[in-house]
Design goal:
Layout: H1 5-15, H2 24-31, H3 35-52, E1 56-60, E2 64-68, H4 71-82, H5 90-103, H6 110-117, H7 121-135, E3 140-145, E4 149-154, H8 156-170, H9 173-182, H10 192-198, H11 203-217, E5 219-221, H12 223-241, H13 259-276, H14 283-293, E6 297-300, H15 302-306, H16 309-326, H17 334-354, H18 363-369, H19 371-380, H20 382-388, H21 394-410, E7 419-423, H22 428-441, E8 445-450, E9 465-468, E10 479-482, H23 489-496, H24 511-523, H25 530-548, H26 556-559, E11 565-569, H27 574-587, H28 593-606, E12 611-613, E13 615-619, E14 631-642, E15 648-656, H29 664-674, H30 679-684, H31 689-704
Parallel strand pairs: 7-8, 7-9, 9-10, 11-14, 13-15
Antiparallel strand pairs: 1-2, 3-4, 5-6, 12-13, 14-15
Helix pairs in contact: 1-3, 1-4, 2-3, 5-7, 5-8, 6-7, 8-12, 11-12, 11-13, 12-14, 13-14, 16-17, 17-21, 18-19, 19-21, 21-22, 24-25, 27-28
């Protein structure tokens, strides 16, 4: 989280007075500010300390403020005041350190990292310990030599693999594409990660070569895979330049089986040799081919599909297993499901056979939000694991699950056309799942899907809107609607204003799957405490029962009870108000403390993302093992408080969602409530919880009438 120069001035004053409390009047005098401005900036300092986990700001009535920090935290804060531009989380620091160690020819010293990352040497030492433990998984070793410095020792192929994985984790897909089209390095981790990959590289020339490769292979890579291959090629060029070529690849490729890919790899290698006037060893062809083979695609030619007959019977068996588990039959969409799975599985099988890892950014969301679908897909893919003789990672399983999720939601739906084009960076499975979510709720016809790079090739007369999972420079005059790869509550709120609203799904209970989940949980019970075991079993049983009752969406007043509605609450800090609001649901065991922390992370990343109208915020976070039941609460403060961007807030609403249905009607009622004239003022004037509940009831009664 960044911090402004005026806030740094306040922080400096607090750092000089750690032994005693200092009043807001004294702070204002030292900073030469009004007391109002000083109080606002103290709030920003407190938010910064909480986000960075650097001590606490202790507040005492009539005494003022005092910093409560350790010696190490004190040192880090002093460093950060000298470098106010950018600060990094622990994971970001680890990524940058790895990138720097692999990219530099000479060993680097702790002091170097301490300076560029604005933290103490002790913090860097701890980060290096994390890196050292993780390097064993990559068959690499962290070497620390006194007087010389730190470097990573190991095979060049493994180093490149780690550098590319680190880069892909640190950089968002849209940041790479944005740099491709605008040459602006917008990454939070710039200049480190992006410079280590793209400096002194003509990225437009590499882009041109990859477009040629797509034509030669008769495929279209997903934007995600395209970015990945582009990064791999840039890494290859930079490593060869400093005398670090690939000597051998552990999983040697069959040149006959992948003749087209090797022909394309040779073309790319030769063109790079000519353009950069450099010699590239033949072994690098295998490196290029490896990534061409493993790239996800949105389109594949009939020729390629016709050569997958040995895989077809396996895919059919997987589909039939899923049908049995869900007690359904895929009808009109079965052939399309088969085709999509085969297009996806060709590179997936190549990755699995060749030991190429893939990172699925949606894994946690799929596992937690679509647990039954994920588990059934995983069990159904056992036959593919037997066929390959290798274990399939959860990242790969999650991508396959998206295809089945799309097919399940498409069954028995009649969709009237409302034309929209889908721009999706992560491939067929994601786009199909997204299409199904859209069709389950809206009267909409997706006329096509494409990546950002291919948007200009689609005739704008064929669609009215662009629905995109990534931000990108404007390439169309049509309205662009930005959504998540798996639609969340905020996405639905935006889309509801644009499309006709329609919601309805059918789920089937699979007793075998419920039993399998229970067995899996009991197998892990020795490692779980009694409370954790009870919580997991409760969640499984509640979800299995809830599947049969999901049309019983709860109403707003089911949640807004006396315990969940608080009025005239005196809190003078925005973060404290958020914490207090979360505590209501925590006390009812509806959410864990992690939910509050996830809200703070969203706040740090997106600013005041929760503001839905003047003076009102709607707090929520993804359910990443942090929600125990669907619930809502309302908190009305006795006065306005300021958030970091200057917005003034007095009404805090929070909701937690265990599933995809219980909260829908209550949110619809909330939308209606907040559209009522003068509702904000009427709620603020409430003297008690009863007053607020009565006002809400009267407004909602008009909706029914």
């Amino acid at each position: 989280m960044s911090i402004s120069d005026p806030a740094i001035k306040i922080l400096a004053i607090l750092l000089k007075n750690t032994e005693s409390y200092i009043s807001i009047k004294e702070i204002a005098g030292l900073a030469k500010l009004s007391e109002r401005s000083a109080r606002y900036l103290v709030g920003k300092v407190e938010e910064f300390l909480q986000c960075e986990k650097l001590g606490n700001l202790d507040k005492k009535w009539k005494s003022g403020y005092k910093l409560d920090v350790t010696k190490e935290e004190f040192e880090d804060l002093n460093k950060k005041m000298n470098y106010p531009k950018i600060f990094y989380s622990k994971n970001e620091r680890v990524g940058i350190i790895l990138s720097e160690l692999i990219s530099n020819q000479l060993p680097l010293k702790i002091n170097y990292f301490s300076k560029i990352l604005n933290v103490s040497q002790n913090t860097i030492t701890k980060d290096l310990s994390v890196i050292e433990a993780g390097l064993a998984n990559s068959n690499l070793k962290l070497v620390r030599k006194s007087g010389l410095g730190i470097y990573i020792e190991g095979n060049e192929f493994n180093k490149r693999k780690l550098l590319s994985t680190t880069s892909l984790t640190q950089l968002k897909n849209n940041e790479v594409l944005s740099y491709l089209y605008t040459s602006e390095k917008k990454s939070h981790n710039s200049p480190f990660v992006m410079d280590n990959i793209f400096s002194d590289i003509n990225i437009n020339y590499i882009d041109h070569l990859l477009r040629d490769a797509e034509d030669m292979l008769e495929i279209k890579f997903t934007d995600e895979s395209y970015s990945s291959i582009l990064i791999h090629l840039c890494i290859m060029i930079k490593r060869i330049r400093i005398g670090k070529p690939i000597v051998f690849i552990e999983n040697e490729l069959d040149r006959k089986q992948y003749s087209i890919e090797f022909k394309t790899a040779k073309y790319i290698k030769n063109r790079i040799c000519q353009y950069y006037d450099m010699k590239i060893p033949d072994d690098e062809e295998s490196y290029i081919a490896l990534h061409l083979i493993g790239g996800n695609v949105t389109y594949s030619s009939d020729y390629i599909l016709s050569n997958l007959n040995n895989l077809k019977s396996i895919v059919i068996t997987i589909i039939e297993t899923v049908e049995r588990k869900f007690n359904i039959k895929f009808k009109s969409g079965k052939n399309k499901l088969l085709e999509d799975l085969m297009i996806h599985l060709r590179p997936a099988v190549n990755r699995i056979n060749l030991g190429v890892d893939i990172v699925n950014p949606m894994l946690d969301e799929i596992v937690n939000e679509y647990t039954q679908l994920f588990q059934i897909t995983k069990m159904s893919c056992c036959i593919l694991e037997e066929f390959l003789g290798k274990k399939i990672s959860d990242d790969e399983i999650a991508y396959i699950a998206l295809h089945f999720g799309a097919a399940l939601k498409n069954e028995n739906q009649n969709i009237e056309p409302f034309k929209a084009l889908l721009v999706c960076a992560t491939g067929i499975g994601t786009s199909k799942m997204l299409i199904s979510q859209l069709k389950s709720r809206y009267i909409i016809d997706i006329v096509g899907t494409c990546g950002v790079r291919n948007l200009k090739d689609v005739n704008e007369r064929n669609y009215e809107y662009v629905i995109s999972t990534i931000d990108f420079p404007a390439k169309t005059e049509k309205k662009v609607i930005r959504v998540s790869p798996i639609l969340n509550k905020n996405d639905f709120k935006i889309l509801d204003k644009i499309f006709a609203n329609r919601y309805g799904e059918t789920y089937r209970v699979d007793i075998d799957d419920i039993v399998d989940q229970l067995v899996t949980t009991f197998e892990k019970s020795k490692k779980l405490g009694k409370d954790e075991l009870k919580k997991q079993l409760h969640s499984i049983i509640e979800k299995s029962v809830g599947i049969q009752e999901q049309n019983l969406s709860k109403k707003l007043l089911d949640f807004f009870t006396f315990d969940n509605v608080k009025t005239n609450v005196h809190i003078n800090n925005y973060i404290d108000a958020i914490k207090y609001t979360c505590s209501i649901l925590e006390s009812k065991k509806s959410i864990s403390e992690k939910y509050y922390k996830d809200i703070l992370k969203t706040l740090e990343k997106h600013g005041n993302y929760f503001k839905i109208m003047p003076n009102i915020v709607l707090l929520h976070a993804e359910n990443i093992n942090s929600v125990y039941k669907t619930d809502m609460a309302l908190v009305i403060l006795d006065e306005l408080v300021k958030c970091s961007n200057g917005d003034r807030i007095q009404i805090f609403i929070i909701f937690s969602s265990l599933n995809g249905y219980e909260h829908f009607e209550s949110l619809e009622e909330l939308t209606y409530l907040l559209s009522e004239e003068n509702i904000t003022q009427r709620l603020i004037e409430c003297k008690s919880s009863l007053d607020a509940i009565q006002i809400i009831g009267k407004v909602l009664k008009k909706r029914k009438g």
